[in-house]
């Protein structure tokens, strides 16, 4: 049996003004956050931008990751989607590493 297992495909849900470039950046960020994680069986990422200038943080990035049957969720809201994705990367990396340690 091959000891190295391919990472599952990242499923995306998007709403609002989310470009292909921003989606690709989110995919890289999530893969970076999960680089050392073991047992990842599924990943779903939601990117959403609300077109309302009165909102202080209209961009949302969220990831739900399943590790051998346990679900972990991380999310971040920010003024811009790239900022939300950066915060998501940090938060997901922390949650993944604490789950692996515990």
Automatic annotation (TrEMBL):
<dbReference type="InterPro" id="IPR036567">
    <property type="entry name" value="RHF-like"/>
</dbReference>
<protein>
    <recommendedName>
        <fullName>HPF/RaiA family ribosome-associated protein</fullName>
    </recommendedName>
</protein>
